[in-house]
Amino acid sequence: MGEGRVSERPDDIFQEDLDPARARRGWGARLGGLFRRKATADIPPAAPPPAGGGRRWPRLVGWGLGGLVVLFVLYMAVGAFIVHAVDDDPDFAAAAPVPNGGQATGSQAVEIAAALIERETGGAHRWTANDPFFLPGWLLDNMPNYQQGIIYALSRFTAEMGDQIGRSRGSSQMDPDLDRATGLLRYPGTIWLFDLSTSWAPTASSESQYRAAARALRSYNQRVAAGTAPFERRADNLLQTIDRFAADLGSQSSVIADHIEQSRGWLIDTRADDIFYSTKGRLYAYFLVLRALGRDFEGVIAQSGATKIWDEMVENLREAAELRPLVVMNGRADAMFQPNHLAVQGFFLLRARTQMRELANVLRN
Question: Where is the chain membrane-spanning (predicted)?
């Protein structure tokens, strides 16, 4: 029996070597299996990508938002460049109404005031002082101050028209069109479609009120041309109007002087250009209105011997209104490299005011 067992063991060994299944159970085979690359069929298939592009959507949304921001910035910058216009054209004019093909008998001053309002509120230019943050005019600074300066001067003019020139002697009632125009021009210039300080409801915009004032002025002037509305061409009326304009310029010169005294020498002065362009708007409007009033009252001025003084006054207003510094600076008066544009503007303003006072003295005599 022992010989039988011995004779069987070699056979078993040979069978194990010949049997591949049994050979794999050896330690070498088992260790080799650890490093053997699995067949492709043994690797589970990869999960399919999620529907809709997976991670692409956040990236696309980010790019889209970034593109919108860039477009908005370009729209604001380019739009502000296109909209910006400080129009101080000294040759701007408007023809007085002519009734029935005859000579012009309406007021040239009233007509130029109405035309100037229309020009700045949607005619040649758009009103920018009330633009909200999503319109290009919101970025502008000089043009809104200039436009509001114009409207302020015209509101003073219409008030004087109602109190003096447009009122018959001894009459206590203001002309209804002049009264309406005066009230409308006192409307704040910064109201868009809403005024949240008073109500959540939509309201009238500044430019719509000013255009209504221009229509009221034209209505009055048409009646002046037809002879149904008063326009008193008397020296005392002109005198009172000139005195009021001179007082307003004196008040503005005090604003300029105070700012120069308090802030001079600063390299960056964000308030200086606001004052400069607001004053520039007033001077430009007064220049156009007084030039036209000189034609309306040509006979009265000539009879008083004040033609030369009147022309000099108008010329000084023109020079003051045409100042166009690239950057408004508020340096010291004796500075070599940093000028003071407010001081220069104030000089021309005071010259014009002085001539208004001289003119008033001549008209009194």
Answer: 60-83
Coil, strand or helix: which one is 82? Answer: helix
Contact between 184 and 209 (Cβ < 8 Å):
yes
Model confidence pLDDT, tens digit, residues 144-193: 999 999 999 999 999 999 998 988 765 668 899 999 999 999 999 999 98
CA distance 289 to 116: 10
Beta strands in the chain (DSSP E): none
SS3 assignment, position 340:
strand
Beta pairing partners, 202: 194
In a domain, 208, yes or no: yes
DSSP state of 43: S
Domain that holds residue 174: 86-364
Planar angle of CA 257, 246, 92, nearest 5 degrees:
100
Burial environment of residue 218 by CB neighbours within 10 A (0 to 12, 13 to 18, 19 or more): buried
Instruction: Determine, yes or no, domain membership for 259.
Output: yes
Is residue 147 within 8 A of residue 277, CB to CB? The reply is: no
How many CB atoms lie under 10 A from the CB of residue 79? Answer: 16
Residue 28 domain-assigned? no
Tell me 163's DSSP state.
I
Q: Structural domain tally of the chain?
A: 1
Share of the chain above pLDDT 70, in %: 78
Residue 45 lies in a domain: no
Decide if 233 contacts 296 (C-beta within 8 A): yes
Q: Are 215 and 180 within 8 A, CB to CB?
A: no
| DSSP tally for the chain: helices H, then strands E | 13, 0
